Give the backbone structure.
Amino acid sequence: MRWEYEPRSFPIQWDDDGRPTKSFTPDFYLPDEDVFVEITTMKQSLVTKKKRKVRLFRARYPDVDIRLLYRRDYLHLVYKYGLDSAPPSGSALVPTRHTGPPLVTRLTDRARSMSG
């Protein structure tokens, strides 16, 4: 499946002079499906803020298809397609931000490799 990482930002709020003051950049665009995907794997207290931005986006751009995937959705896909085994308790999985095929790495593994 072809995908693009953060290919476009959309203004969602403007000042009195019509200049954008807030914008929203979905995480991925799937060109073959013509759909944008926003993934929220962060702590629940920040999910509300993300959902608010997605609602603003949908109100301003009703013809643009966007899907919001939560942490559980993301992890389900990771396990379903064998991208990683189930994480040990308390270990967080995050997608890498490299172009090309999506990769998944454990934060603890990333920290070890960066520390030398």
